[in-house]
Design goal:
Blueprint lengths: L24 H50 L4 H22 L1 H4 L5 H13 L5 H16 L2 E4 L18 E4 L5
Antiparallel strand pairs: 1-2
Amino acid sequence: MPCHPPRRASSCTPSGLGEKSFVPIKFRCAVRNKQAPRNRKMGKTWALITHLHALAGPTLTLIYPLYASICAMESTSKLDDEQWLAYWIIYSFITLFEMAAENVLYWIPLWYEAKLLFVAWLVLPQFRGASFIYDRFVREQLRKHGVRLHDHHGHGHGAEHEPHPHILKAEHGHGVH
């Protein structure tokens, strides 16, 4: 069965718009017939990649960190607690940034993929990226601006004397009266 209605050699056109083709009909039909299974296979592969892409984001940014945070809370080590607390702080910053810059990020190609790579670096225990970012940037900014945070565990300066130590508050050390 031919791939298109039979035409005279002089009027055979690839697009049907009247331009002449110098490629014989038999060759064009053979190429189309060989590409059809490949195109179907590529379509299925693309669908699989799209589905994996849709699962990778939530798994990498939420499901694995949630599981690891629960494991960290149940362990006796404080090192993993710091890693996952730092992750959630940085992930919150990323989310707030995305909310504020949504209209701009929409136009940046591969933003989502770049974010996934960055989050993978933050999450994977081989890199401990969240702890690195927190120690190098967040903690440095807190110290630079003289911000002291009081927590509900009594670790902050003077937290044991506060009437409501469970309330998180920031004090600036810049000549407060």
